[in-house]
Amino acid sequence: MMGKVNTKSSTDTDLLNLGLDTLMEKYPYLKDFFSALEIDPCPGQKTPAMLIESLSLDHLSQFGLDHESLSAQVLEFIATMEQCRHKIHGSMDHLVIGAGFDKNGCPEAMGITLFPGEVVSVVGPTGSGKSQLLSDIECLAQGDTPSGRKVLPDGKTLDAQSRFSGEFRLVAQLSQNMNFVMDLTVEAFLQMHAESRLIDNIPGKIERIYQSAVMLAGEPFFLDTAITSLSGGQSRALMIADVAYLSASPVVLIDEIENAGIDRVKAVSLLLNKEKIVLIATHDPLLALSCDRRIVIKNGGIADVVKTLAAEKKSAACLADLDKKLGLLRERVRKGQHLIFDQNFFSDHL
Amino acid sequence: MNQLKKSDSSIRLVTVAGPPSSGKTSLILHTAAVLLEQGLRIGIIKFDCLTGDDHKRYECAGLPVKKGLAGGLCPDHFFIANIEACVQWAIDQGFDLLISESAGLCNRCSPHIKGVLAVCVIDHLSGVHTPRKIGPMLKNADLVVLTKGDIVSQAEREVFAFRVRQANAKAAVLPVNGLTGQGALLAAGHFKTAPAVASLNGMRLRFTMPAALCSYCLGETKIGPDSQIGNVKTMDFT
Ligand SMILES: Nc1nc2c(ncn2[C@@H]2O[C@H](COP(=O)(O)OP(=O)(O)OP(=O)(O)O)[C@@H](O)[C@H]2O)c(=O)[nH]1
Ligand SMILES: [Mg+2]
Ligand SMILES: [Zn+2]
Ligand SMILES: [Zn+2]
Fold it and tell me: Is the CB of residue B33 less than 8 Å away from at least one CB of chain A?
C-alpha cells in the first residue's frame, strides 16, 4: 500500500468531515462497525466527526473508548478493510516447496513446484510426515520448521511482515474433523461469509454455492436449513463449495475426505475450476488417481513425486464405475432394501 | 540471535489474556517449546482465582512457574498489583522471557500494559459475536491468537478472523492449533521480540480497569437501596 502512514493525518480529517451518507455508501461495512458499538449513525448528524462528538463518554467507556480513540479506530478500520478489499490473494503464479530434511536429518529427495489449477495428492503411511508438509505450507516455512523446508509463493520469500501479521492467508483447509458451529441457516451463513469477503453480487454467489453443494452432496437440503443440522455429507459438500467460491486463499489443503459421503471426484474438479492449487492427503485410490501427481512421503521427507500415467487414468475409469456401483448399494441400505447381488453386478455396465 | 540480546537486568515480558478454556496454556506451552529449542530461558506466571492445575502442566514441560491466586478479588486487579514483583523474580532468576497467563474470568478488565507485548487468545467455538463482546482485552492486544480452528469450517474461520479485525484493526491475527502446536512458530516470532523491561514502575495500563467501588465490592450482602453505597449504576426501563 502506498505510504499510508505518512499521508495519514491529512486524509484522516478529510474522511471524518465528509458527509455521513456519502461515507456509509462508500464503505458499507461501517454500518456493522457502528452497530457493534451500539451507535446509530442515522439521526441527523452530517459528518462522522459530528456523530462521534455527539456520543456520551459514558456510552464510549463501555467499549473502552473515548472520542479521540474512536475517531482513530474508525479510520484504522476503513484503512484495514480497504486493504483487504484490494489485496488479490488469488494472483499467485506458482508455489515452490524447497527441499528440506527427513526425520533423520538426511536431505529429502526433492522439492516440488505447484501450479494453480493442479491437484496433487500427498501419500504415505500414517505418521510418515504428511501433516508436517501441509503445516509447512500453511505457515510458509522459511527453513525454520522441523523439516527445514522453504515454502515460496512465486518462488520468492514472503516478507516477514506479511508472514507474521497473519494477513496473507495462503491456505484454506478442509478436514473430516471440521464441523459447522454457527447457529445460522445455510443462506444466512453464506451471506455472512460473503459480506466478510467484501464482494459484489452476493445473492448470485449464494445461489451458485448452494447449487454446487447440493450437487456434491447428492441428498438435497434447503437454503433455510440450519447449518448445524446438515448431515456429514451435506456439511462437507457445503464447505467445499464455499471454499471454491468464497475463500480468498489460493491453496486448498484437504485431509482425508474419502468417508465424507460426497462425490469426491466432482468435489475436486469444482476446486480445480477455480484455479486453486489443491493438495489432498489420502489413501483412497480413486482420489489419488484423480490427481495429476502424487507426492510420496517417507520418514518425514519427500521421497518421490509420481506422475499419474495415462494407463492409470484408464484404470481410474474402472474404479469410478465400481465406486458408482457401491453408491447404488449404499442407497439401497439407506432405503431399507435387500442387497442381493453377485460378481456380475460389478462386471456389468451400468 | 542478535535480536534476542537484552541487558541482564531486564526481561522480555508477554501478557497472555483470554476467556476461560480458550487455549491460553496450550498456546504458551507450544510457543515456549519453540523458544526453548532456540535456547531462551523462560519463566511463567499463572494468575488464577481460587485453584487451578495449569502450573502442573508448565512444570511437566520443564518450565519454572509461579502461581498467583486472586481469591475474591478480580484477577486482573490482582494481576496489576503483583506483576512488578513477578518481573523482579524473573530477572533474579536470569530468565530471558517471562510469560504471564491471565485467569481469563473478567471480560471487563484487560491486563494489557503499554510497552509490553499483549496477547489475546480466543477460540473459534466461542461464537462469531465474541470478538465484539470481549472488549478491551481484544481491542488493545498486539497479537490475537485464534485457537480450535481444527474443528470448525474454513468459512467460519474466515468470518471469525474478519470480525476480530473489525474489533482490532492493528493487531496481528494468527491461527494456532492448541493440540498440535501448528502455528506456534509464528506466535514464537512475536514472543521473542517482545520489548524488554527492567521494571514496570511508572508504566501504564492500556485501559482503565473499572472501579471496584460499590458497597458490594467491599463485602455487603444485603439487597436494597440502603445498602447500595458508592459507584452504583441503575438500569433504565423507559
Ligand atoms: N480441538 C482443539 N482443542 C484445543 C485447542 N486448543 C486448546 N484445546 C483444548 O481446549 C481445552 C482448554 O485449553 P487450555 O489451554 O487449558 O485453555 P486455557 O485458556 O489455558 O484455560 P484456563 O487457563 O483454564 O482458562 C483443553 O482441553 C485443550 O486441549 C485447539 O486448537 N483445538
Ligand atoms: Mg490455562
Ligand atoms: Zn475485572
Ligand atoms: Zn462492586
Answer: no
